[in-house]
Amino acid sequence: MTLRQLSLIAALLFTALGAHAQNVARRDVEIPMTVKGFFGESRIKLAGVEYRPEGDGPFPVLVINHGTPRSPTDFPKMQDRYARQAEFFAKRGFLVINPLRRGYGKSDGPWAENYFSCANPDYVQAGLETAKDIGAALDYARTLPYADAQHMVLLGKSAGGFGVLALSSLNPAGVVGTINFAGGRGSRGPDDVCSEAKLVDAFGRYASTTKVPMLWVYSENDHFFGPALASRLLAAYRAQGADVRFEGVPPYGNDGHAFFEGRDNTAIWVPMVEQFLAKLGLARHAQ
User: Fold this and answer.
1) Distance between CA 143 and CA 120 in Å, rounded?
2) Which residues span the domain enclosing 42?
3) 171 in a structural domain
4) Between the N and C ends of the chain, which has fewer C-beta atoms within 10 Å?
């Protein structure tokens, strides 16, 4: 069966689902975060969007995390990029939070995810800075009476995927699974990553402490983090005994790094994700 045929089946499935699925309430939220600096602590707010299923809950929580554009001039322009994916998960009974991290869109605070030198990047610390913002979104979710804080899942794309791996290395309370779509850092151009060895080392450092089961999805024609590099990143995790299910997916357009965004790709990634969630005891809620 071709990808086009699978996509048509998926479209019909989602149309049918939309007729019976739960309603989703969308609202803009402000996520409080405490930031430590040279002059003490300060309180800032991250912009975010919450997608709440119909009913009283409590609902398992999914936090979706965005990537980082190659050009810093695009940081302030960023908005909620994953509304379609968030609604998809919310219709399956997840409370979904899509935060914008420091320095992106309307969120407060200066950008904090710099790895500095391309020749000698500090990927580990950069990822841990990303993890702080994602952690703030988890803290926000824990305050909601309709959130199930014992069943939380992290999902990230690109730099957001790298960030959820960093946070998972800290094994935050209630996080039962992590989904990484094309995670990494340091891409400065097509098939050009700053010090790949340093990135592999950072992945190994995160893997050495994580206990969180993971699903990774990388495309065959990803020109940020291609198949050869993805294999090295995976090897760094597995060498530490981490629980990682890896899925290599077909090429998508001119650059498979955008695979998660592509409407035609839901037929491919949805079964992978649903199987992973079922393994975590979080089978689809909406039928």
Assistant:
1) 39
2) 3-279
3) yes
4) N
Say if 286 falls within a structural domain: no
Contact 151, 282 (CB under 8 A): yes
Each residue's pLDDT tens digit, 62-78: 999 999 999 999 999 99
DSSP 157-193: ETHHHHHHHHHHTT--TTEEEEEEES----EEETTEE
pLDDT in tens, 259-277: 999 998 999 999 999 999 9
Q: Is residue 287 part of a domain?
A: no
Q: What's the domain count of the chain?
A: 1
Specify burial of residue 276 (Cβ count, 10 A radius: 0-12, 13-18, 19+).
buried
Evaluate the CA torsion angle 164, 169, 172, 177 in order and state its sign: positive
pLDDT at 3: 44
The alpha carbon of residue 244 and the mean position of all alpha carbons in its chain are separated, in whole angstroms, by 15
Rg (CA), the chain: 18
Looking up tokens 């090295």 gives 232
CA atoms of 257 and 263, how far apart (whole Å): 14
